[in-house]
Amino acid sequence: MDFRIRGLSAAPFTQYYGLSQSALAAHNIIRYHCDQHPGFPDRIELRDALPGETLLLLNHVCQPAQTPYRASHAIFVREGATRTWDRINTIPPVMKNRIMSLRAFDSNGMMLDADIAEGETEIRKTINRFFNQELVNTIHAHNAKQGCFAASILRLPT
């Protein structure tokens, strides 16, 4: 079954690129300087930042549906990122190297299933298992350890 993994659009975040620490603090955002690789996963390009790059740590509403599953959490956005990862049937390296929590949602934002997966093979198997359920239309991938939203996985028409 075909699927699309999409990072976040840069549009909501570019207004914060280059702001001073005090201006960022007014929005509850913290600037980090990457000092290790891997370790700072950007949610736009779906890649780990390289040492020396800067990232913004901010809160992001990843599940906006007005259900009990409405959710937000901290995410990293690489300062200057503009090109959203958007690929079909391709697992980004940033997900292959982490234990992922995959959460299957219906079109109303209700969670129908959830599991953890580690490595490309397990992630693919879990995606296929979830999308074999007729009502699942979106899967949210989260980093299992920190709980941070990683990316959306969308069902493609067959």
Strand order of the largest sheet: 7-1-11-10-8-9
Number of helical stretches of at least 4 residues:
3
Uncertain segments: none
Shape: globular
Order of helices and strands: EHEEEEEEHEEHEE
Assembly state of the chains shown: single chain
Number of domains: 1
Main β-sheet description: 6 strands, antiparallel
Residue-averaged pLDDT: 95
Content-based structural category: mainly beta
Helix content: 10-25%
Give the end-to-end Cα distance, rounded to a whole number of Å.
7 Å
Count of extended strands: 11
Radius of gyration: 16 Å
Element layout with pairings:
Blueprint: E1 3-6, H1 21-25, E2 30-33, E3 41-42, E4 47-48, E5 54-63, E6 71-78, E7 86-88, H2 93-96, E8 99-105, E9 111-118, H3 119-131, E10 138-143, E11 149-155
Any overview of this molecule?
This protein has 158 residues and is mainly beta. It has one domain. It has three helices and eleven strands; from the N terminus they run E-H-E-E-E-E-E-E-H-E-E-H-E-E. A six-stranded antiparallel sheet has the order 7-1-11-10-8-9, covered by helices on one side. The radius of gyration is 16 Å and the shape is globular. The termini are close together.
